[in-house]
Please model this.
Amino acid sequence: MSLFYRNICLCTTLVALIASANRSCAQTEYVFQPTTGIADWNTDENWLGGDTFAFVPDADIAAGDTAYVGTDATAQISSPAPRVGQLNVDSSTVLIDSTGSLETFVSSGSSGAVILARADSVLEMRDNAALTIGTVLSSVGQLHMYGPNVSLSADAGILMNGGTLGAHITGNSHGLITTAGSADLSGTLLVDVSGITPTLGMTWDLVTATDGIDNMFEEVVVANTPALGPGLQYQAVVSGNTAQLQVGTTLVASVDRLTGEVSIQNPAGPGFEVASYALRSAAGSLNPGGAVSFNDNGVAGTGWLSSPATSQLVAEVKPSSDYTLETSESVGLGQAFSVGTAPAAEDLVLDFTTTGGQVYRGIVEYTGPVNDFVLFVDPSDGSAAMGNLSPFVNDPELTGYAILSESEQLTAGGWGTLESSGEAGSGWDASPALASALAETNLESSFTFGYGRMASLGQVFTPAGTEDLQFLYTVAGEETPRVGTVVYGDIPTATPSLPGDYNDDDVVDLADYVVWRNNLGGSGLPNDVSPSSVTSADYAIWKANFGKTFVGAGSLSAVQSVPEPATVMLLGMLPLVGLIWRRVHRR
Model:
């Protein structure tokens, strides 16, 4: 049976079953009544059938009984529940835990299906939970399987419809979904691993379908999971009739935020026979003019055919012969990442194929300071600081900030406010501290965070807590808060300086351009925040800081218009001829 025909059959069966259920006069839909908290499924008073019946739905007693859960409450099944003809979860949650079990079956015209009707429809299975579905599981919502002892079976098939399967893995095996039909897994796989240390080659069976896996997950999302080693990733694969999660190897695109240099690396091995690659950016953060072809880097041989490079795509294919990127080797793509803007869009995606026809999603890793105003958080001890470590950030004139945590991971006792420390001037007023929010405002003045400026906030985060912090801040002249970046790890140290001041006279002007031009290709410059040699990246830094004057760690003057290289001579002549120069910023 073809994949297309199987999908048509599965969808037709589901529609027919639901339509049949809707036509049935014998069917009674029982609606879960609690509206908040967690309430017991197996309590009569929690259900209403029609206008009069307050019973737990039981299709073995009253043929066709179905269950509908559609409130903000969670319907909890902690012991075996009566069988039902159908389960509809509509913007709500059903939790099966402990020794709880539930079975659906075709009864008096009911469909026997489990339907997660919306994106916020949730079915959670924990402990020794078991769910037996008489026909199909149809989900645009979320199915979360916790641990190795849960089980789910569906007689007629699995239809994901863009929903999410959460694999919450706690051991060397995981709770299995089985079906005698086919499985269409067109959706998202959410990976959450705890209690074990994953290593290369580890595999977990997720879904076994007798009639085969029609479509695999479109995206794998990893959350609350320790990082794997370099070049390792969680991969969704098919082995026979089983969809699996494995720890495998892939290539890595390394992106330097300061210089824009991009390289494709193979840190873990084995060698990959690369037939094509594509580097994509939906936000247009690629630099087509700086990208270098595999043909020109002297490493990957010749015969590569390039698609026209754009700000959204840099791609090549090698149709004539093989190229193997061996373990620990790398291939440079030049300055393929656009620098000089902040905050920069870090949305690059790397895909590549092998000569065997396999398609891989690579890993993209960014190095260097984040091009944004950043909240740094050390998750080991909860300490935090905010600062500007990017030469491309237009130094924020801070008037307020807020740190938010939906899971209430903030701690008030160790919070070192700007009001008490004086690190950002005077006039700061701290709001009452909450586990969900810490905030300060300054109604008297603003404080400019120049390059290299950091301000400690003390211990504000629960050590090893859930990393869900959000960072908002306000600047002078703007009413709408900006969204900053949160970076977890060691808190960096920095010395305030003036990027682009290549003659070290505390101002970025035309003289610094001359120093850069005369030293292009050399080994370094004063106040050079980019590593190694003098390149066009140093020009981008000069351009981003043109007009700034270093007058203190926390105060830099306003930014002036920046000339392009071709207009430097013209601009230098303007004082002599008394002309007014207006620069049109090119994008």
Q: What stands out?
A: The longest strand covers residues 272-280. Residues 3-23 form the longest helix (21 residues). The chain has a mean pLDDT of 86.
